[in-house]
Amino acid sequence: MKRQAWISFWLVGLIWASSFLLIRIGVKEFKPVEIVFIRTAIAAIGLNLVILFRRIPVPTDWRNIGAIIFIGLGNVVAPFLLITWGEQTVPSGIAAVFQSTAALFTLIVAHFAFADERMNAQKVVGLIVGFIGIIVLFSRELDPTNMFSTNITGELAVVAASMFYATFTTFSRKIIQGQVAPVVMAAGTMTVAAIATAPLAFFSETGFTPLNTVPTDVIQAVVVLGLLNTFIAYLFYYFVVRELGAARASMVTYIIPPVGVALGAIFLDEPVGITLLIGAGLIFSGIAIVNLRAFEWLRRQPQIENIK
Hints:
By secondary structure, the protein is mainly α. It is 77% helix and 0% strand.
C-alpha cells in the first residue's frame, strides 16, 4: 500500500501541476466564472456519487453545514476565480509559482489561529526569503509609469488566491476539527462553488459562451480540469493522506511549481528567464527553510554539549 501511496503522491502532484496549463488554455475562449462553474460542477457530481455509493455519513447540523458553505466560498470559489481571472494575462508557469506562496501565508495565519503554530526564528527566516522571491517575480513586470499594469494585476490576483487558500484552509481545521470526513468536505465545498457560480456563468449580460463556438481542444481542456484535476485528484489525495499522513501528503505542493513551469514552457512556449528561476528558487528555499528539520539539530546542539 505504501508503494501505491507514493505512486499516487506523484500522480497528484503532476495532475495538479497541469491545472494551470489547462486553465490558461480555457481562458482563451471561456469566461473565468464559466471555467470555475464547469470544473466544480463536474467535481461535485463525482464526489457526491462517491459519498452515495460508499454510504459515507454527511453532517445534518447547521453548524457544520454553515462551516462547509463558508469554507466553500473562501477556499474554492474565491481562489478558483482569482487564479482563473489572473491567468488571462499571467503565464501558467508563473501562476503555479505564485500559488505555492500559500505555504508562506499559511504560517502567518496559523500563528494567530493556533497556540501550537507560533512563529519562531526559523519560520521568520523562511518567510523573509520566500517574500523576497515574490518581490523578484513581481519585478519582472514593474513599470514605473503604470504600477498596476494588466500583468501585475493578474499576478496580484493569483497571490490573493494563495492568501485565501492559506486563510480558509487554516480556519477549516479550526472550525471543523475532524468532525467532517475529508471527502465530504470536498464534495460539500465543490457543491457550494458550483451553486454559487452558476448564476454568474449563465445569467451574465452575454450569457454562457455557446459551446459550438469553442474549439474542441479548449472544451477538452476544461472538462479534463474538472474530471481529472479536480474530482479524481481529490480522491487520490485523500488516499495519500490516509496512507502517508497529512504532513507528507502536503509536500505534494513542492511538485506543482517546477512541473507547472515546465508544462507551460513545453506546451505554450512560455519563456523561462533568469528572473523566474531566481524568484522561484527563493520561494522554494523559503518554504524549505520553514519545513526542513536541519534547524532542529542545531537547536539541540547545546543540549548535546551539556550532556557530554
